[in-house]
Specification:
Number of strands: 11
Helix content: 40-55%
Largest sheet: 7 strands, parallel
Structural class: alpha/beta
CATH superfamily of the largest domain: RNA polymerase sigma factor, region 2, helix turn helix motif
Number of helices: 15
Distance between the termini: 55 Å
Strand content: 15-25%
């Protein structure tokens, strides 16, 4: 395989840093072409000094002069703002773009990468949750590959290879249950951010870890799977799987079920997205199936996980409802992490925002961004 240039949108976050670990482990396969971040200029500058990409982008334009100063004496081009992120997403030297900028800010550069017919290794959820119809339609129009990085969607992608979509009966997403899965419902009222962030198997950023505890992450993944694989929401299910070894399953019309298993390590699906269709040698420990122990599965109690129920409802409603739900969740989770609301307030606030936002079509980028902004405004108002 020729060396592939990689542009990392969100290089300072958890997925971005693990992507750099993957590149470090395979310098004969990958090189860093561009790095981009929202505000973490210190880490971005350190990364740029080490990897010497052609371009470094910072979303916050006020930080561009400082980044230029930190990178003085190098040949690295510094760009800023939304146009800077789009420059990183369309850089000619990059064959693969890793989409890991969180929030709605990640949508425009993802669309830019698709428009430039790049391979998009998609990690951030907002593009598909908020604007799935737009993203996938544009990918088809431009002939761009969209390879999922989420472990669950990577598993589905791998299980579906070589199979006709009309032969699929169900997509089954697995869920660990998050850090609070063993607490009694009455105990959830007193949950602190520190407790919610103690995930039993995965190492993720704080927002995603809280989403795991509420199981909103699975709701978002249901919506993503719908757009990625063209399967109706009614045929996408979630099951509890505490060990996080089976990452997802596909059931076919004849009753056969295919599953993808591996260690719970995000570097594995990242590496697969970068190297597909090839499989690079394992570098972080193979799964010893005889030592994996018991693998268990169970039904999800929607009463315990109201965020998952809300996500299914928003997905069925369609239009801008998923964008509204996603925006409200981001603001509510941020408030929980800041200690201004309780854990059980998160779904209550999301539901209130969904009730206050009128449904609309999500067929334009402007409509999606407008719905996101309106939902954030209403959520902040409810939090006062």
């Amino acid at each position: 395989m020729p060396v592939r240039g990689v542009s990392i949108l969100g290089s300072t976050g958890s997925i971005g840093r693990q992507t750099l670990e993957v590149i470090d482990a395979a310098p004969d396969r990958f090189r860093v072409s561009a790095l981009a971040a929202s505000r973490n200029i210190e880490v971005l500058a350190q990364q740029a000094q080490r990897y010497r990409p052609a371009l470094a982008a910072i979303l916050d334009e006020s930080l561009a002069p400082e980044l230029e100063t930190r990178l003085a004496g190098t040949e690295i081009q510094v760009v800023a703002g939304e146009t800077g992120l789009q420059a990183a997403a369309t850089l000619s030297e990059a064959q693969v773009v890793v989409g890991a900028i969180s929030g709605i800010a990640g949508l425009a550069p993802v669309l830019a990468a698709i428009g430039a017919s790049k391979r998009l290794a998609l990690a951030n959820k907002e593009p598909l949750v908020s604007a799935g119809a737009i993203v996938m339609s544009e990918a088809r129009r431009c002939g761009a590959e969209v390879i999922p990085v989420d472990s669950e969607h990577s598993a589905l992608f791998q299980c579906l290879l070589g199979h006709r979509r009309e032969d699929v009966r169900r997509l089954i997403l697995t869920a660990s249950g998050g850090a609070l899965r063993d607490l009694a419902p009455q105990e959830l009222k007193a949950v602190t951010a520190e407790r919610a962030l103690a995930h039993p198997t995965w190492k993720m950023g704080p927002k995603v870890t809280v989403d795991s505890a509420t199981m909103m992450n699975k709701g978002l993944e249901v919506i993503e799977a719908h757009w990625l694989f063209g399967v109706s929401v009614e045929r996408i299910e979630v099951v509890l799987h505490r060990q996080s070894i089976v990452h997802s399953l596909v059931e076919f019309m004849d009753g056969a079920v295919l599953a993808q298993l591996s260690q719970p390590d995000m570097r594995l699906p990242i590496q697969y997205a970068l190297s597909y269709p090839e499989r690079a040698p394992v570098r972080w420990g193979a799964l010893e199936i005889a030592q994996a122990g018991e693998l268990t599965f169970g039904a999800v109690d929607l009463a315990r996980y109201p965020c998952l129920r809300l996500a299914y409802a928003a997905a069925r409603q369609g239009g801008t409802a998923p964008a509204v739900m996603n925006a409200a969740n981001e603001v509510a989770v941020s408030a929980f992490l800041a200690g201004t609301i309780g854990f059980i307030d998160i779904p209550r606030i999301i539901e209130a925002v969904l009730e206050r936002c009128s449904p609309a079509s999500a067929d334009t980028l402007e409509a999606v961004i407008g719905a996101d902004a309106e939902a954030r405004r209403i959520t902040h108002k409810l939090l006062r």
